[in-house]
Amino acid sequence: MVEGLTDYLKPRKCQSCYGAGYTPCPTCHGRGRLGGVFRGQQAQPCETCGSRGRVRCQPCQHTGLANYWLWQPSENGGWGARGQ
Ligand SMILES: [Zn+2]
Ligand SMILES: [Zn+2]
Predict the structure, then answer these.
(1) From the CA of 84, how far away is ligand 2's center (Å)?
(2) Which InterPro entries does the protein's record reference (predicted)?
(3) What sign does the dihedral 62-69-4-7 (CA atoms) show?
(4) Ligand 2 geometric centre to CA of 40 (Å)
């Protein structure tokens, strides 16, 4: 009866990052740096991801949830059970 609605309201994993909230950096492909592949070539820190090798997932706004708008992060950082 309301089964569909209940499912709809459940937190759903983001299909882009599989719930991680991050996706591998498209510029450095998760390496965190650029170049350095050839001998004598200096590796440069990737500016896109700040050499972290990953970037915030855009579709889920970094929450890892496809329906993040139902599960807003709380104002004080840390969200979900850790909130308050
Ligand atoms: Zn995502
Ligand atoms: Zn990068």
Answers:
(1) 33
(2) HSP_DnaJ_Cys-rich_dom_sf
(3) positive
(4) 21
Give the angle 69-24-79 at the CA atoms, nearest 5°.
Answer: 30
Of the listed ligands, the closest to the CA of 62 is 1
Ligand nearest to the CA of 45: 2
pLDDT tens per residue, range 3-54: 777 777 788 999 999 999 999 999 999 999 998 778 888 899 999 999 999 9
Question: Ligand 1 mean position to 11 CA, how many Å?
Answer: 12
CA of 64 to the centre of ligand 2 (A): 19
What pTM was estimated for this model as a whole? Answer: 0.65
Angle among Cα 69, 20, 29 to the nearest 5 degrees reads: 120
Q: What is the pLDDT of residue 30?
A: 94
CA of 34 to the centre of ligand 2 (A): 8
What local confidence, expressed as pLDDT, does residue 73 receive? 58
